[in-house]
Amino acid sequence: MSIWGDNSVVILAGGSGLVGTEVLKHLLEQDPITRVYALTRQKLPFFHSKLEQIQDNELRILEWHNENPTPKIGIICLGTTLQQAGSKEKLEQVDYQLVCDVAQSMKVVGVKKLAVVSSIGASPYSLSHYLKCKGRMEETIRRMGFDKLVFARPGPLTGLRDETRKNEVIVEYVLKFLTPLMIGPLSKYIPIKAENVAKAMLYEVFDQSSHTHKTLNSSEMKRLVKRYNY
What we know:
9 strands, globular, two-stranded parallel sheet, 7 helices
């Protein structure tokens, strides 16, 4: 089943991260995708005829030429952890402010449909600073007026990272034994492959028949991948 449309143009932020790498790989493999703009801090270490990199330390789009093909689809795969950021304030700068700024920039250059990686448990009322930032981010982007909006809220992610996060390795190890017991509502906490998060986000944001706004948990993402797997 093909959902990619014809001559589709996409802009992606976070193409070097765990999910973003899978998103970029999948986009470049689809023939109907004719151009992928990658908004990145550091130059990506490869070349592809469809890929155009927009490099800026703050992920800003400083100039946009009118003759550029307009991206109607935007994907944001940005995020950090408290350990990586070093403080709650710096985490908020990334997981809330930067993501919202990038979303607004994408809207300005023509994006109509946007998919964003969030987190299971995201809520502006959460006691967790991390989940509160994610919830505030979702709330702010909802007010930006995109025609279609998809938030992916995965549980623990599996996949190869550039750097190992000790806490996530421990969680992944424990959940390996608990997974058979996680049924019903608990199934959304089962670890999910970054590749499947990427595919599910893309399938949902490209799908012409789906709802205007959609929030996907891990169970729903796995079902989407099974549905569109070809």
